[in-house]
Amino acid sequence: MSRRLAPIGLVATLAAALSGCGSFGAIGLGPMERSAKSVESDTLPPVATAPVTSTALPPPPMDPNAQMPPQTAAGTLPGTEPLPGTAAPAPPPVSTASGAEIGRTDLLGGWTLQSGGESCQLFMTLTSWTGGYRASTRGCQSPTLKSISAWSLSGSQVVLAGANGVSVASLSASGKTHFNGQINGGQAVSFYR
User: Do the beta carbons of residue 154 and residue 132 sit within 8 Å?
Assistant: First the structure.
């Protein structure tokens, strides 16, 4: 008798397990189909909506430290017409006295910074910062060089600024990889790679 109970117990266990899986029709054990009429009653009626309208977005704010090339009387760059709702194109790179063009991306990365017999590292990124873009120094002993935290490009001149955005030094390009100038106190400064 215990042999007969074991298969019946197994069947009861399987039936209980399958009942938790949804309808038997979902697993192919019986014809449990819904009628088309009950499906229609489950759908929602259409809802009237307001018409969709669109307007042009204003141009993004301009970088206060960006150099803008001269514009024509119509307010566009010579030979170009901006599309409605678009910002003016980025200014072209500036040429140095040696003829090399310098753009902001040319200044990114690490440089050797020298002033008053001291040599340390200068790093420049395009992260917006007070005074232009983010700059940092490493290994500098001079408090003036340690204070550099921003940079900006004005023509072919690079301005290094302190934490409050005040200019610390101005340097002119003598090539794409060498800049010479003065710290605001008059001491010579350069950076190169």
Answer: no
The pLDDT of residue 73: 46
Number of DSSP helices (H) and strands (E) in the chain, helices first: 3, 10
Strand partners, 118: 115
Query: If you compute the radius of gyration of the chain from its CA atoms, what whole number of angstroms results?
Result: 36
What residues pair up with 112 in beta bridges, in sequence order? 121, 192
pLDDT digits (tens, 9 = 90+) for 149-185: 999 998 889 999 998 899 999 999 988 899 999 998 8
54 or 67, greater pLDDT:
54
Ranking 58-67, 76-85, 106-115 by mean pLDDT, the lowest is 76-85
Q: Which two tokens stand for residue 136?
A: 């940092």
Quick check: 181 and 170 in contact, CB under 8 A? yes
According to DSSP, the β-strands at 132-138 and 150-154 are: antiparallel
- Which residues are CB-contacts of 89 (< 8 A; sequence separation ≥ 6)? 77, 80, 82
Q: Which residues pair with 113 in a beta bridge?
A: 120, 191
C-alpha span between 96 and 104 (Å, rounded): 13
Contact indicator for 135, 123 with CB cutoff of 8 Å: yes
Q: How far apart are CA 18 and CA 28, in angstroms?
A: 11
